[in-house]
């Protein structure tokens, strides 16, 4: 019994660890350094009217992620160089949204203003709140004035100089073709859709068919019998007709239903006494009434 | 005297202003047409008993949605902050359809399907209606997303149609939902001629083997395995399939009777009221009376016809491979269209017309519930490809 309890506890603990790990993957690790402008001569102006380098962080997840408590740094040897304060609404990044930081070395101007400036040939990294786990990093090569360096598509893997600087907006500035439009262009008459979708529908239901055709056989296998030594058994006589059909069951159920419903209290001037069960409830009990003296 | 003159002017002006707020001052011919449609729905529900649970809330919703008011009073379903807008949120965000599926799962007995699993294939075949309508919609110039949303009418499943159209083409949702529910109500009218046309007398008289009894273990395993298999293949169908099978597990487990009773009773009733009323109210004349809506109604009819035809023809084709004694009566082919339980009832009624002792209802319930699963899978596929 104790052993069983230990096993159950171990399974629950393992499940909790796995769930916790999954939750972690759905949050901070979904953040990406998305776009960087190192040389800002005539580009984006911050709320103080100054032009400085800026960094765009993108939340790739479909849930809100709080960047508060994490670290931004331009020095790999010092991962905790700038601590992003917690609890500010700015640090809470909506699903598939952005937050901007200004690399102006003026941290007194607000939490979006970092304590370092971006340099050509330098690097930039985002660290988890433990100061050890790197979430994302980018090596900054030679830079062009007023041209941002970023992922060609939000959260994508390919980096390059972007045609337009897009602080706080989608990096891809071309015409966005929806999945439906792409599908329609490839399959203008719907034949492909019919073939693919019907195949999937049939596959799903055939799979269910195969499983349920054999389910009874599978769960009726006696595993103990399978692995134990064969014993000579006296075969019990089988009941006539191996399976009872649904119709027979329905007839039995109907007969029982009619029998039960035929039991009534008053029949043709003959009275029968039937016990009426009452469910006990403390709400209506006098024992627990308010007139009792509280102890 | 002067004062009384001013007062009368004041009263007159305000009465005039009040009149400008009334529906009499704002009503258009479109509103009147929609009100007439709403009244027809209510009439059909009460006098003809065509799907009253759906047509009364929808019909009354159409009346509510077509009372002409001055914009800006936070009254209309499309005005942010109005009561109707809050209720409509459940439709727009796809909250109501999965809750209805939960109730359907808690009501549905899958025994007919478990005892004769090959009937599942009929439920799959009937989904041809969806993809036939999709192809026709593309030909008529609808965009792929719109075509997908319209095509799902062929699945004959109101909640699925609302769920998919809210994701793919929210602007067409009112017309799609009304079309889907209208044709579901008209199943007893649409299907019989097709069934008679595609079958001969010998086929209509086929007697099917009585279904075997199904054990409790099988019934409990069905929702678990069914959910895992279908959603592993089509994860985008998870909101509908997950809730359908969850509801069924509540019913079949035997230990959650209270939860199952709530799911199939008060919960589904509340959600049906909300979904019916808000979908009806979403058909404001200005958004509903368009050429697209006419196209949607035509496509809806076509999809029902294709689905019924595909179901019946598939059974005839399937029978070519089945031994004598195991053959399926093609009159249950129509019930692959998932209008539960109306299409199964149609099979029963038409079957009895030709043989008073040949009861097809139990057999038809198999493809009927398979159709629910099939249409939810099809919706998941359309959502996966087109959203």
TrEMBL record, chain B:
InterPro entries: OadB_MmdB (IPR005661). The chain crosses the membrane at residues 20-46, 53-73, 85-107, 119-142, 172-199, 220-247, 267-289, 296-318, 369-386. The keyword Lyase does not apply. GO terms for molecular function: lyase activity. Keywords: Cell membrane, Membrane, Translocase, Transmembrane, Transmembrane helix. GO terms for biological process: sodium ion transport. It is found in: Cell membrane. One of its GO terms (cellular component) is plasma membrane. The keyword Transferase does not apply. It is a multi-pass membrane protein. NCBIfam families: Na_pump_decarbB. This is Glutaconyl-CoA decarboxylase subunit beta. The lineage of its organism: unclassified sequences, metagenomes, ecological metagenomes.
